[in-house]
Amino acid sequence: VSAALELKATPGKHVVSTLCEWDAGGKKLTVGFLSASAWEQTKALRESMKSIARTPISGLGEEAVFAVTPLTNTLQVKKGAAVLDMHLYGFAPDQAKAKEIELARSALGKF
């Protein structure tokens, strides 16, 4: 995490059974997992929210979407029966996108 963020991050903290977080000097990363059924159930909702900029990311899992909100930059990647759900706080969207893609590629190799 520290290498991808290019900042010294605290060790990952297990928040709940499917979510961990890292703090890096006021910037924060959370990584969680959702079921593939949750991806399908919320897909229409995500697409209907026109106020949130979303960008499909090709070559990452079966389907991946990067989103920018006023509070966070999010990357969600569907692979098999799981969805990797990442939120990066404190970075400009272009920086966050590159960092989250790097982290996702590393994580996807593990499941």
Notes on the protein architecture:
By secondary structure, this protein is α+β, with helices and mostly antiparallel strands. It is 30% helix and 40% strand. The chain has 3 helices and 7 strands, in the order H-E-E-E-H-E-E-E-E-H. It has helices at 2-5, 36-48, 93-108, and strands at 13-16, 19-24, 27-35, 53-56, 63-68, 73-79, 82-89. The mean pLDDT is 89.
Any chance you could write out the topology, listing elements then pairs?
Blueprint: H1 2-5, E1 13-16, E2 19-24, E3 27-35, H2 36-48, E4 53-56, E5 63-68, E6 73-79, E7 82-89, H3 93-108
Q: Beta fraction of the residues?
A: 35-45%
The total count of strands amounts to: 7
Q: Ends: how far apart?
A: 17 Å
Mean pLDDT: 89
Structural class, from helix and strand content?
A: alpha+beta
The largest β sheet comes out as:
7 strands, antiparallel
Order of helices and strands: HEEEHEEEEH
Helical content band = 25-40%
Principal-axes geometry comes out as: globular
Q: What is the count of DSSP helices, taking H or I runs of 4+ residues?
A: 3
Radius of gyration: 13 Å
> Which spans of ≥5 residues are poorly predicted at pLDDT below 50?
none
* Strands in their spatial order, largest beta sheet: 1-2-3-7-6-5-4
